[in-house]
């Protein structure tokens, strides 16, 4: 069947490069005389849209063409906006759907509703031949659900954590590392001027890619969620670094989910639609422990949200645009259930990962020196450019 109308949505946290992916999809679809409909606010656009209400339809959908996407790659974020909606676990059913029967689940946290049948109805009513979902493991988990319901769906992975399975690279990762490295290099001057210890927190809820790659190019210590470090040993290593530095300072970068033996990252607030609560700042907690043991002055910087702001770098623009073109090619071939990816250093189309497998993790043995709490630099011959295999 010829593809005449493609829809695209972006879900979860925004990252630089999303607009480049959208632009790539629009350009590739235009070459095939295929219409592209943007679904606004992620999965919410397919749960909350009321197709009998023109205002609602205009709010949640927008026609995308070369003209209105011509310059979007020059800005960060996503022109389609985003949300963390999970159609299979909604606490509140949209007003225009109240009175309809949806499967529900009771738990200690309350009642949730699965409105997937309405999502399927909306996809059909919008005459969508193929849906392209751009997101991280949470957003893509629902894409996998729709694939099982027979929806022709393709995916593009994005997350600064770089932890989507079946791919070595996710949109947003390179820009996040570039920003983290730049921020740390700028702050070296003030940390060094005051002879302090600098502790930096970056994204990485379950995987340590952002922390490890930042440490890899700045030559500093790092902590990752995949390995609980020994606090006393970490403090000793930092003090060795400080004493060995002519400027008498040292630096450490932590994933937001990093922990040490005897400590667990504190969480707060209500869980989102995918069961995640906000994590307290582990850098602040670690800083308190370092002060107790050393009486040193510290500079603690939370770099997280700065990493997802602004224009994408070259790598993210190139890969995002290429991913966009790849999924349209797949759509034209009537393929479904596939995700654009980097595998063994090459572009590939792979199966959308199963949500039950959870996020991808660092290969600690191959990539992290558990004695020195820093990246491993040896043994890289023959390894893909992103230092890991999907």
Features:
single chain, 390 residues, alpha/beta, Rossmann fold, 2 domains, seven-stranded mixed sheet, four-stranded parallel sheet, 11 helices, 17 strands, 33% helix, 19% strand
Helices, strands, pairings?
Blueprint lengths: L4 E6 L7 H13 L4 E5 L4 H4 L6 H7 E4 L39 E4 L2 E4 L2 H10 L4 E6 L1 H12 L4 E5 L15 H21 L3 E6 L6 H10 L2 E3 L7 H14 L5 E6 L11 E2 L9 E2 L2 H13 L3 E5 L11 H19 L5 E6 L2 E6 L12 H4 E2 L4 E2 L15
Parallel strand pairs: 1-2, 1-6, 6-7, 7-14, 8-10, 8-13, 9-10
Antiparallel strand pairs: 2-3, 4-5, 11-12, 14-15, 16-17
Helix pairs in contact: 1-10, 6-7
Summarize the structure.
The chain is an alpha/beta fold and 390 residues long. It contains 11 helices and 17 strands.
Structure description:
The protein is α/β, with parallel strands linked by helices and 390 residues long. The protein folds into two domains: 5-171 and 312-357, Rossmann fold, CATH 3.40.50.450; 175-309 and 363-375, 3-Layer(aba) Sandwich (Rossmann fold), CATH 3.40.50.460. It is built from eleven helices and 17 strands. The strands form five sheets. The protein has a seven-stranded mixed sheet with strand order 3-2-1-6-7-14-15, sandwiched between helices. Strand 4 and strand 5 (110-113) form a beta hairpin. The chain is globular and about 70 Å long. The two termini are 32 Å apart.
């Amino acid at each position: 069947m010829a593809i005449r109308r493609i829809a695209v949505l972006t879900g979860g946290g925004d990252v630089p490069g999303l607009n480049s992916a959208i632009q790539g999809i629009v350009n590739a679809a235009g070459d095939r005389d295929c219409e592209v409909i943007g679904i606004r606010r992620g999965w919410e656009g397919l749960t909350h849209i009321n197709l009998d209400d023109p205002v609602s339809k205009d709010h949640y959908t927008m026609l995308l063409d070369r003209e209105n996407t011509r310059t979007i790659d020059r800005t960060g974020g996503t022109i389609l906006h985003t949300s963390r909606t999970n159609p299979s676990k909604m606490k509140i059913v949209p007003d225009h759907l109240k009175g309809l029967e949806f499967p529900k689940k009771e738990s200690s946290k309350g009642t949730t509703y699965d409105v997937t049948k309405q999502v399927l109805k909306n996809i059909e009513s919008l005459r969508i031949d193929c849906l392209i979902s751009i997101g991280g493991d949470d957003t893509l988990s629902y894409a996998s659900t729709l694939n099982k319901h027979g929806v022709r769906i393709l995916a593009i992975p994005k997350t600064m954590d770089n932890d989507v399975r079946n791919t070595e690279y996710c949109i947003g990762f390179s820009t996040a590392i570039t920003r983290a490295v730049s921020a740390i290099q700028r702050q070296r001057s003030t940390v060094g001027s005051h002879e302090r210890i600098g502790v930096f927190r970056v994204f990485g809820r379950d995987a340590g890619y952002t922390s490890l790659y930042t440490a890899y190019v700045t030559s500093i210590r790092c902590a990752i969620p995949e390995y609980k470090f020994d606090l006393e040993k970490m403090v000793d290593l930092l003090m060795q670094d400080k004493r060995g530095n002519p400027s008498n300072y040292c630096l450490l970068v932590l994933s937001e989910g990093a922990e040490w033996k005897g400590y667990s990252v504190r969480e707060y607030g209500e869980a989102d639609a995918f069961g995640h609560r906000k994590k307290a700042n582990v850098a602040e907690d670690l800083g308190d422990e370092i002060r107790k043991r050393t009486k040193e002055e510290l500079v603690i910087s939370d770099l997280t949200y700065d990493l997802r702001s602004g224009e994408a770098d070259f790598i993210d623009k190139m890969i995002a645009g290429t991913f966009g073109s790849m999924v349209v090619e797949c759509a034209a071939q009537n393929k479904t259930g596939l995700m654009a990816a980097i595998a063994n250093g090459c572009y590939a189309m792979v199966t959308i990962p199963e949500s039950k497998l959870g996020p991808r993790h660092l290969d600690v043995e191959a990539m992290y020196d558990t004695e020195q709490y820093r990246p491993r630099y040896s043994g890289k011959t023959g390894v893909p450019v992103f230092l890991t295999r999907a």
